[in-house]
Known about the structure:
31% strand
Amino acid sequence: MNLRVGRHAVLGEMEAGRPVTIYVDGEPVPAREGEPVAAALYAVGIRTTRYSPRSGEPRGPFCMIGRCTECAMTVDGVPNVRTCLTAVRDGMEVETPGRKKP
């Protein structure tokens, strides 16, 4: 099953970009250049984009159009980036806010 986004409600038609690697919490993750980061994570089975600061429960993208901020992650050192609207670039570093480090 192909879980890549072909058309995004806000960003429009998505062309299949070249294969690239992003790093999520230090781990390499395959992605397609130009696709939304949250979509790239979803395509490889990563559903948690942050942890609740109150309960510590995992949270994941909900609306995928930049409204709910459930997809907010730290991207290349910048906190609270809405990953559902942020295009993948090769070598991008993504961190999950609230994640307990091993």
